[in-house]
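User: Structure with FE3-S4 cluster, tokens only please.
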Amino acid sequence: MTTSKKLFIKTYGCQMNVYDSERMAETLAGQGYEATDQAGEADMILLNTCHIREKAAEKVYSELGRLRPLKDANPDLKIGVAGCVAQAEGAEIMARQPLVDLVVGPQSYHRLPELEAKARSGAPALDTDFPAEDKFDHMRGPRAARGPTAFLTVQEGCDKFCAFCVVPYTRGAEVSRPADKVMAEARDLVERGVREITLLGQNVNAYADADGVTLATLIRRLAKVDGLERIRFTTSHPNDMSDDLIAAHGEVEKLMPYLHLPVQSGSDKILKAMNRRHTADHYIRLIERIRAARPDILLSGDFITGFPGESEADFADTLALVETVGYGQAYSFKYSSRPGTPAADRAEVPEVKKADRLARLQALLGAQQKATQDAMVGREVSVLFEKSGRLPGQMVGKSEYLHAVFAETDAAVGEIRKLRIIESSANSLGGELALGQGPVTQSA
Ligand code: SAH
Ligand code: SF4
Ligand code: F3S
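Assistant:
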């Protein structure tokens, strides 16, 4: 009997890390590793990390500390750190936490097989290069079964250099994968049952391959793939929202009416200090054009409170922008000073002010989010079912607006059905089959 080795990956941070973790698991499957969700039985544990805020980065060290008993119990266990903390801190990680055997930065994942072998031989394995080759070209493993939704990274890195952000340093310069490779990967996913693809990039709307294919063109090409029913993309920068991409929202039926478009602040002074290179007014006019193309689009954003120099009046501008735009979804954070970024040496807003502003902003965003969700009641939406719910006969899926919808239905995973929304609860909607013949449903 051959026993395969077991791999446990824990993923932090953004969707790009989720995608990378899937690809790392596939790559290591080629080395005989089988995925497990039990850290205790693993022969290799990989933490795929995030460096975006101090808390995110510090989490990694506490998690590593918790792995010590596993390593004591199994001396053959190898522990690796991947992702943005690996890129930012490199060999420092092994110095600070000697139980780490392997450190690999986001652009070097295709070298995992060699690094794994090196770690197995007892040598420290470290790679945080930015090699020229496309790592995804070299990350091919056996084709694993897929659920109905998938992420597909098409663009990596960032050239924007917002004054607060580590991403340009941890992920490197903006690089777009060739459109034909993206199309091939998308077709492969669809053959494996995927119905919805979310195109990913740190600045996905800056996508432009060597042949000049833009994100809008890529979306139009993907829309022609039979069996692919839904297309999404995230995350976008306001300055890269081209006319063509805006138009696609009104023209491409498979492109879902949901857009994550971070603005960070509503104050022109702070936007300038952040190096966002647009004004609040520019953003608001952009939103108007997007809504003209697709009136029902659900908007999502990111915000930072207490960026260095932010006054109460600047923060009021942020609240005013939120009032004007009206978000259906949002993520907001207290500013966290990151080593090596331009804002790191600026005088900080006191912690209590950051926290107070965050609470006020979240109250407003939360109310908008709830109102948007409640307004779905009585409407007909289409739901892609992803898994069964907690109640017998219940299924859970996502509407085109990315709301979680529960319904009692005989629909299978991967099916799309029209539902009428009958109920809005804390974080989800309840629906019944449209056309009146569906059973009454309950949301969990
Ligand atoms: N490329 C994306 C995502 C960047 S990270 C974009 O530009 O939208 C996701 C979010 O984290 C950012 O939009 C920002 O709101 C937040 N963020 C980034 N750096 C931060 C920092 N130093 N402190 C607090 N929040 C931060
Ligand atoms: Fe960070 Fe700004 Fe780039 Fe987004 S656009 S990844 S916030 S530097
Ligand atoms: Fe975090 Fe890196 Fe993503 S810093 S948000 S994991 S790009």
